[in-house]
Amino acid sequence: MEEPKKDKTKKKKSGAWTIGWGWMITVPALAFLSWATKKGIKDALEEEHPAPLTILKERYVKGDIDRKEYEEKLRDLLGS
Questions:
Q1: Does the pLDDT of residue 29 top 80, yes or no?
Q2: Residues 37-78: pLDDT tens digits?
Q3: pTM for this predicted structure
Q4: Domain residue spans in the chain?
Q5: Separation CA 7–CA 57 (nearest Å)
Q6: How many CB atoms neighbour CB 16 within 10 A?
């Protein structure tokens, strides 16, 4: 019985990942995503939100709430 011949020379894998070129794409992409995420979170945290009294006044002016409800909520906000 004859054994099949084994090819002792292994074919080297070739491609962008094996020679290191893939890292030239991956690292900058990850750095950009990290920067964009941090910027987005920072912008969201620094976004100005109107004060509760301002919102209450706007709702009263628009007619969303009546005077009685406005005064109740105003007392609640001012804590008196």
A1: yes
A2: 888 888 777 777 888 999 999 999 999 999 999 999 999 988
A3: 0.41
A4: 19-47, 49-80
A5: 84
A6: 12
What's the rounded Cα separation, in Å, for the pair 2 and 53? 93
Q: Rounded to whole angstroms, what are the CA distances from 21 to 10, 12, 14, 63?
A: 22, 16, 11, 63
Identify the DSSP state of 20. T
Rounded to whole angstroms, the maximal C-alpha distance in the chain is 103
Nearest-5° Cα angle at 58, 54 to 64:
135
Q: What single letter denotes the amino acid at residue 29?
A: A
R_g of the chain, CA atoms, integer Å: 33
Q: What is the DSSP letter of 5?
A: P
